[in-house]
Design goal:
3-stranded antiparallel β-sheet, globular
Amino acid sequence: MNLSLDGLLFIQAHEGFRSMPYDDAAGYCTVGTGHLLYTGKCAEHIEENPYKKGITKEQGRALLGVDSQRFQAVVQSNVKVLLTQNQFDALVSFAYNVGASGFKHSTVLAKVNAGKHDQVPNELRKYVNGGKPKKRIQGLVNRREAEIKLYAGK
């Protein structure tokens, strides 16, 4: 199974777009639609940053396409049960947001693989903290609720 166009647009809508490199909620240098550049602040890498002058929306969409393929592969290789398209799209969005390692070690994946789909919403709701120090981020709360709806096919 692959990410649907609706799934890609879902990620794009929840990530937003920024043409100039910025530090995300975790303090990581990011550009475009959540494309991770460095696991550090942009100011620490400004001279080596290939996007220091910014990117276009078209370049951002291209980066999103490449990045989403990586997270599709993470979901494909770690989920051991059959999924609906909406469930797959929601899990790719979640993996895109928490990272490959975060997804592989998540309680969300454990519930999915145990076939406990009714428990997935409560697990998703646990992943709403970010930044340093960790704090509840309303944008993550909103995203998790949207992923829950998508997962449920609503």
